[in-house]
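sry for the spam today, last one i promise. struct tokens for design, 207 residues
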């Protein structure tokens, strides 16, 4: 399921600025929408990124984790901030000093190897059935060429063994997607979960 960029009118220049690796940290994801240029859903780039993120879900749902690693940028940071249950007067529910995950690509490779190599792990045998559903995709241009912000909702359903109940996890994702000559690559992902506690069954599940 290799992803290759579609050509648009005028064919986008695919020269990638090597300074992107340094300057991408300066992007302010989650900034007020009025301060960013949102791409219409009919924009070809919006459609390409939708295809890319949909293909990513298929890779994860079908346990093609090693193939999933190939669509991650080498400098990816995959993070899930810790949610705290707070009253409105107490401020932001997400802990700025703590993350459930803050993974580099090497960290993600190790987590994937656990799923691929240790097949007898309690959360992997018998194999769980997992379905991910993405919606409400919004894409923004950034000041960096070929780099886009993508916000979406994610719902994950998990079933294992003969248990009739579903395990559910949902939240909002903020992604940075980079367009390269080899296709789109996921450069950043921050997942803001709706749950305050992450059960052991989800410790090695990617959103």
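last one done:
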């Amino acid at each position: 399921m290799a992803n290759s960029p579609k050509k648009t009118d005028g064919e986008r220049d695919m020269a990638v600025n090597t300074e992107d690796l340094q300057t991408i940290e300066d992007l302010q994801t989650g900034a007020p929408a009025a301060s960013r240029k949102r791409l219409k859903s009919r924009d070809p780039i919006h459609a390409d990124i939708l295809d890319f993120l949909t293909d990513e879900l298929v890779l994860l749902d079908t346990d093609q984790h090693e193939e999933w690693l190939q669509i991650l940028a080498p400098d990816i940071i995959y993070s899930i901030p810790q949610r705290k249950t707070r009253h409105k007067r107490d401020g932001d529910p997400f802990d700025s000093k703590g993350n459930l995950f803050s993974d580099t690509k090497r960290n993600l490779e190790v987590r994937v190897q656990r799923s691929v190599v240790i097949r007898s792990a309690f959360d992997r045998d018998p194999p769980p059935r997992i379905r991910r559903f993405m919606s409400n995709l919004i894409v923004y241009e950034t000041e960096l060429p070929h780099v886009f912000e993508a916000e979406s909702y994610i719902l994950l359903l998990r079933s294992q063994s003969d248990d009739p109940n579903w395990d559910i996890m949902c939240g909002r994702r903020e992604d940075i997607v980079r367009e390269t000559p080899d296709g789109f690559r996921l450069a950043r992902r921050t997942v803001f979960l709706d749950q305050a506690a992450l059960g052991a069954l989800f410790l090695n599940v990617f959103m």
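Residues 44-61 form the longest helix (18 residues). ok im logging off now
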